[in-house]
Amino acid sequence: MFASAKIGRSLSKEAYKEGIEALRTELLEAQIALRERNIPVYLIIAGMEGAGKGQVVNALDEWLDARGVSVYAFWDESDEERERPRAWRFWRAMPRRGEISVFFGGWYLWPIEQRFAGAWDDAALDQSMSGVRELERMLIDDGAVIVKCWYHFAEDVQRQRLKALTRSDRSRWKMLPEKSHFSEQYQQFEEIADRVVRSTDIGRAPWHIIEATDPRYRDMTTGRILLNAIQKALAQPPHADRRLDDSPTNTDDELLPNSPETRITLLDSIDLSQTIERSEYRKRLDELQAELNDLAWRAYTHKISTVLVFEGVDAAGKGGAIRRVTQAVDARLREVIPVAAPTDEENAHHYLWRFWRNIPRAGRMTIFDRSWYGRVLVERVEGFTAPPNWARAYREINDFEEQLSGAGIIVQKFWLQISKDEQLARFEARENTPYKRYKITDEDRRNREKWDEYREAVNEMLARTSTPHAPWHLIAGNDKRFARIQVLETVTAALREALRNKAG
Amino acid sequence: MFASAKIGRSLSKEAYKEGIEALRTELLEAQIALRERNIPVYLIIAGMEGAGKGQVVNALDEWLDARGVSVYAFWDESDEERERPRAWRFWRAMPRRGEISVFFGGWYLWPIEQRFAGAWDDAALDQSMSGVRELERMLIDDGAVIVKCWYHFAEDVQRQRLKALTRSDRSRWKMLPEKSHFSEQYQQFEEIADRVVRSTDIGRAPWHIIEATDPRYRDMTTGRILLNAIQKALAQPPHADRRLDDSPTNTDDELLPNSPETRITLLDSIDLSQTIERSEYRKRLDELQAELNDLAWRAYTHKISTVLVFEGVDAAGKGGAIRRVTQAVDARLREVIPVAAPTDEENAHHYLWRFWRNIPRAGRMTIFDRSWYGRVLVERVEGFTAPPNWARAYREINDFEEQLSGAGIIVQKFWLQISKDEQLARFEARENTPYKRYKITDEDRRNREKWDEYREAVNEMLARTSTPHAPWHLIAGNDKRFARIQVLETVTAALREALRNKAG
């Protein structure tokens, strides 16, 4: 992979001077076009120690308009980062549409370090790279440009470079003693780098191997690669993003979801006639809430986090069910996120970004009142997003939830269902109670007219996104009390099991 | 202060039932009006241990529309919080305009705990409360409503309550053993609480002492207090906020800044004819950058953070000066924040919120390319905000910077000045360099026409906001090289001194 980076390429001072002005002008023009077209760019700067990655970034800093460029080094983790899925720190650093995020090492540095330190074997590295491919695929599907640069040079060049660095920038090497192993173990590092680069050198986000021996060559090549990548993206027809687009231009190989198995209507399986006696309800509610209070504290002690998702038809009783949970859990341990229309900052990012922002810290509980499933429900039914976007979302959501669960977070999802008659009765009751009147809007009425379309969307969602690590629970909601007890029983059972596993 | 909270007030079940429906309806109506009028509300829930603060929040949760209410408990700090000024965690939790943030304990809990634990004496507590008054004043000036509730009861009531809690909610008390002292030391706690409540019981944000013996009385009283406060704010004419308002309705006692001392034009004191030889520049640049690299690493080791602010007339060379700093400091240690138009999330908060978001973690450096001083420069000159708002900002900014400096952060501010002729020459040069053409906009031309108005605003800014802990440095910018060396010398000197103080 790296032979091309050991042939001593360089650029004369004159050639550099001659080319640089045109390059800067074109880069700025590209950056302006990028902003107009709302394309987010990820520039990953990775490679050998001593290759001058910091200098490359300084050069780009000078060439580009600083408004719209952010530089991130993923270095020592904060406890807020440690307590969440590993990818959380990258999610926090996502560029807005039309802006450029420069990532030192990107999502590649940590896996390489794990393998190099011997904490991982090749299989673990490969699995991690498969996750990286998924992440990059998702970002590209969302319209992003990913430019990956790997800086490399021959062993003797690196040896000289590190020696020189040690003289001129001593403090740095004092600070990072563990990094100095890299030069001694050039061979081993290169082998790992080769494995990483090969397994993530994908068509839509290829690696660029750049020889780092000569700074002028290195910097200008980087500038040209970035420019080319942006220009290529600009030459594409606009990406079908969050708005409805009749002619989806996404060339993805994703199948549209017409597979027959989704015709099995899971919703039909809910027995809506189930009820619970009022006295029995009181008793169970007290028991379950007392237990949940205790479990939530124990989960805190064991740093087990919980994500609860509540979805359901309008007036199904989501709010009441959520309150029965929050009443039981100490307010310091839980947060409710009501999901409404996105802000412009949220709209300027991937649709999952607003949820990534709200992942709980260790031992806490976050309750989503509506969630990322809006993508495959309201956005699909109302046509707010093009079919390829919501079709792709099943996979993106499964992947997202797998990352949560992989980080040890309990993920439980509730679908609250009521019958169409019961919904009408509740709408009417709300209109007759002054303080409930605010809860009913014209939108609710309109949604009701699309009952069957929503039903189809819900069935498909349940079929495609119910996974062992993030199951859907279908809750029969015609009897509110019955629904609440079901929810509390499910939540307590999940916490109990997680705590048992922790102890065992 | 608390005698009124020990007389056994209660509310019968019937009275509660009778009143609750009207209260809920009115609260929802008030919440809707709040949203339309863009008024942010802070509800502080503080008081004795065992008073049922969590239950109050649960009741409000049920009564209010959850979209637009966030609940925050400031409990165990994360390292990201610990590494910033103490108020940072509150800044993170500020409500958007039109929304309600409920704060458990608010900014009162920690000072009370410090005093109670004996870590502070009365003087330290008083000083802290003076900071609290400043904070609340700033928020109210920004149009916020602050509702402060203190829940209290007699000693014997608390003793019974804590005993009962220990039975029903054991896990909680297992978790918080240090809190159980509170009941034993009722007298001492009440004395401290009295001091805190008295010293922050200000006209525009009074304390409400609520007897917490009877839950129905406690909850409904809270609801009524919140409702009254919102209704009172709604009855006021609209607050002159970020838009220009010809008739400022702010009844603040702030003086408009016409005091004679600001007529001294500090800008005149800059000798713009100063230059440096090119060879001397090269030599000093190398020396200073090498030293800065070392200092930045040492500051990292000693967890000393730095905030640099760059302001200046258009084309004064801010970007070039900033790059001479960033070239020297490892990219992992610094971040540049270019300040452009605010996003809607930023607009929905206090104008300082967007800067609070970007305070560096321990040992890092954040460089602001333009800053919060926009409030007293562009917003003032262009009339984007009403006079009382920018007039008030001097004090708010001084207070903000004092908090940074109080948390051990180095704050250095640079004003880059060039002559009017030099600016014209640079505008013309930019137009003749293709990649620089993008740096010049019609706005720059317009700003140039307001040269004298800006000059007056700058002079006043320099006079009012140059403080020992956050000094302004006037940089003669006609010779770019001279300016850069001045900046580097100032930054290295500040870091050197901070490190010496740390060591000494």
UniProtKB/TrEMBL annotation, chains A, B:
Coiled coil spans: none
This protein's record includes keyword Ubl conjugation: no
Gene Ontology annotations of biological process type: polyphosphate metabolic process
Residue ranges, annotated region (Disordered): 237-260
Matches recorded under InterPro entries: P-loop_NTPase (IPR027417), PolyP_AMP_Tfrase (IPR022489), PPK2-related (IPR022488)
A GO molecular function held by the record: polyphosphate:AMP phosphotransferase activity
Residue ranges occupied by any Polyphosphate kinase-2-related domain in the UniProt entry: 11-234, 277-498
UniProt keyword terms in alphabetical order: Transferase
Keyword Transferase: yes
Protein name, per record: Polyphosphate:AMP phosphotransferase
Gene: pap
